[in-house]
């Protein structure tokens, strides 16, 4: 019996030793492979950097698609036991940039749309339609003539509105001139002290166009499987601080397989004229007249936000 135990112990020790040795060999082999992959990626990135430096048009796009659908029947643990719900969201970031030795022309577009529904099937008056929940549309065109390696005299046109609901009501068009600073390849900073902010609306007196300064900072980069874009656009009115506004949008995607991956988008905005217009529309829909007339100055300029997460597709 003792001999058998000794034999089993020796066999187990040998198997463990062989397994440990095999695992160590595999780890070493894996480390070599990773180093080889890193070296290949480094050479590929260097070639891509050379391609990016060649003058001419650079065109690309990436986006995020997110959504979910659900249905419940007699699920009594929740307030609405019979319901169908769903969310659908899509974000597309596109750009077309002409980069030359003496000048550049950068164009970009952002579309962020989302729909949501929650249908109470026990309530015949409850809508079973998808309703708009996020609606963002932005077009930007920036032309600059270089006066140094990192500075350029520039002119900017930027248009912002919604597509699904109240198109161009309001709509914002910024036109201005000033300086553009490009300290690194992927960062663009626009400072335009002479800018006019046109506001379009269907007879709504709460929206006012004004003269002011335009500030834009945009960082767009692709690193391997990662696409990233952040954009801050602000208008500072010289006439009234209540006419100022800013929007900050961010998009991130990581490619998992071919062009498909995961993406995340979020944005923040402050716009007092929009907040004031929303309150007036709420009053009109409810057919109520406040005891104290609403004013732009007294409007609570709350921070607006949106986010979307889901599958992404790199074009």
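^ structure tokens above, recovered residues below v
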């Amino acid at each position: 019996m003792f001999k058998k135990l000794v034999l089993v112990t020796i066999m187990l020790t040998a198997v463990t030793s062989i397994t440990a040795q095999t695992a160590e060999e595999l780890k070493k082999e894996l480390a070599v492979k990773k180093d080889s992959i890193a070296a290949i990626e480094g050479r590929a990135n260097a070639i891509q950097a050379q391609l990016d430096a060649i003058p001419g048009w650079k065109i690309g796009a990436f986006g995020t698609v997110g959504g979910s659908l659900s249905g419940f029947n007699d699920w009594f643990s929740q307030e609405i036991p019979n319901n169908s719900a769903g969310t659908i969201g899509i974000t597309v970031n596109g750009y077309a940039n002409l980069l030359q030795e003496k000048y550049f022309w950068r164009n970009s577009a952002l579309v962020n749309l989302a729909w949501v529904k929650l249908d109470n099937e026990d309530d015949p008056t409850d809508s079973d339609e998808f309703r708009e929940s996020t609606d963002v549309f932005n077009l930007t065109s920036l032309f600059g003539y270089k006066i140094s390696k990192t500075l350029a005299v520039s002119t900017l046109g930027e248009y912002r509105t919604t597509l699904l609901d109240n198109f161009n009501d309001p709509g914002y068009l910024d036109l201005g001139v000033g300086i553009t600073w490009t300290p690194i390849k992927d960062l663009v900073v626009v400072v335009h002290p002479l800018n006019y902010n046109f506001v379009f609306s269907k007879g709504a007196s709460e929206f006012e166009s004004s003269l002011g300064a335009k500030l834009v900072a945009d960082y767009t980069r692709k690193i391997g499987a990662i696409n990233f874009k952040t954009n801050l656009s602000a208008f500072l009115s010289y006439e009234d601080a209540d006419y100022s506004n800013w929007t900050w949008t961010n998009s991130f995607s990581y490619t998992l397989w071919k062009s498909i991956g995961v993406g995340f988008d979020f944005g923040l905005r402050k716009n007092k004229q929009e907040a004031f217009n929303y309150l007036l529309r709420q009053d009109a829909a409810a057919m109520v007249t406040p005891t104290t007339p609403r004013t732009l100055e007294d409007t609570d300029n709350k921070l607006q936000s949106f986010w979307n997460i889901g599958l992404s597709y790199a074009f």
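Residues 93 and 110 are 5 Å apart (CA to CA).
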